[in-house]
Amino acid sequence: MSSRLSRLSSLRLIASPLLSSRRLVLSHAAVAVALAALVAAPFATARAEEAPTVFAAASLTNAFQDIGKLYKDETGKDVTFSFAASSALAKQLEAGAPAAIFVSADTKWMDYTENRDLTLKATRVTPIGNSLVLIMPADKAKDVTIDKSFDWLAFLGTDGKIATGLTDSVPIGVYAKTALTNLGQWDKVRERVVGAESVRAALALVERGEATAGIVYSTDAAIAKNVKIVATFPADSHPPVEYPFELVKGQDTPAAKALLAFLVGPQAKAVYAKYGFLVK
């Protein structure tokens, strides 16, 4: 009997450290799980509150950067902007690029995204417009009047070029070609037109003196330090320059709707007006 008690006592002594060890392992595992949850929580929150992306026409760059700061001050939330020609942005949406809002510099490319079920027509708002102008490097600028009698070849000289957007796709280029066609001048100057990938790229060509003149929006000319507006195209020579805003399909979330409302609201409109956009 005493021998059995001795063996049982020995087993208890052996088992006790084993049980303590298991409890310690389980305790450490629980702590590890808790720490992992604490570490993961901020990242999960960040993903849930990821800044919405706005695909916007290049001519809105400066205005939207200011409005983004206002939105951050007002709501504490960031906004991500991607600026390019409206044609390029529409194609990116078609290829599956993620964005919450699309802002085009013409109705053509917004219609394009609607027709492909990429944006939500019911959310379209068109709060601003722009003007089409002719610019030159400031040190060579000479004011002119654009009408059907304007001699473009004499204006450009022997080998002068006109910079604008790509005339078959980029909105500023399409507006430029339409205006020149309606004025009866396109066939005369088409070989002198240099198409750039965006209005800002066309502006840069004139700023650097690589083009004699440029056809851009008045708001882009206004922010450039070394170019001058020498003429404004007649309003009836081209369709109105308008900027439709729409939510991207599948992105009509409360956050995206709130941002869209801010982009077309009074604070944003004050910024558009500051930069020379035609506010409706």
From TrEMBL:
PROSITE patterns: TAT. Keywords: Metal-binding, Molybdenum, Signal. Molybdate binds at residues 59, 86, 199, 217. One of its GO terms (cellular component) is outer membrane-bounded periplasmic space. InterPro entries: ModA, ModA/WtpA, TAT_signal. GO terms for molecular function: metal ion binding; molybdate ion binding; tungstate binding. GO terms for biological process: molybdate ion transport. Pfam families: SBP_bac_11. The complex is composed of two ATP-binding proteins (ModC), two transmembrane proteins (ModB) and a solute-binding protein (ModA). Belongs to the bacterial solute-binding protein ModA family. This is Molybdate transport system substrate-binding protein. It comes from Ancylobacter tetraedralis.
